[in-house]
Amino acid sequence: MVRIVPVALGVLAFELVAAAPAPGILLYAATPDEAKDFAIASAYGRGWSVPVVGETTVEIEQILEESDPDDPLASRRLIRISAVFVAEDSGTRVLLRAREVQTSTNGEEWSTDVTERYAENLGNALSSLRSKWDGHRDTGQSKTREPARPPATGGESADRAAETGAGPVGTWAYYAERYAESRGCVLTDAETTLEASGPDWERHRIRCRDGRSLHVHCHLGDCTTRR
Hints:
Strands 1, 2, 3, 4, 5, 6 and 7 form a 7-stranded antiparallel β-sheet that branches. The chain folds into 2 domains: 3-136, Alpha-D-Glucose-1,6-Bisphosphate, Chain A, domain 4, CATH 3.30.530.50; 154-224. It is elongated, with a radius of gyration of 21 Å. By secondary structure, the protein is α+β, with helices and mostly antiparallel strands. 23% of the residues lie in helices and 33% in strands. Residues 129-165 are annotated as: Disordered. Keywords: Signal.
């Protein structure tokens, strides 16, 4: 009997190997321990097992196919995702890598790096993790105006601008503001300005109460003040 289990990648993964670049995302204001614990909880919530937890790494697994579900020693094929949590000035970056693993009845393993194949799934999992983290964390900072909303679709963004009479805010204004706050910027009443954009990037101008203006560059929602 062969059981094949559909997989919806949830969160996590990385291992240092010479292969495709590991997808990553920044969790603003998170320490590596906070990011790791949050990712583990998310993985458990999505039905993944977590066999290995290191100081700054985690491995999660889910069975894709097994020859005998009732035999723990039966051969099986599984997806193993590894994560590393790297501290940065603005928070913790989560980097993911995926491997497909084949096990035999005598315990031997063969693995293939499938990070590139699952790049879209991993990217979606990372985006979901960051959205959950943004909703979970309390910045502890008072604001003088309502911040930009989380990313919307292009049509929703256009409708929003038409309703308010404001210029376009961009898809990643929300994350640009969160990044600015992580750099010590207290937002003013002035709206964040979308200065320029491309298919996968945006440049925002954010005004701070101390008189500074930050020019924040976002690539697929990952923001920095460096080009």
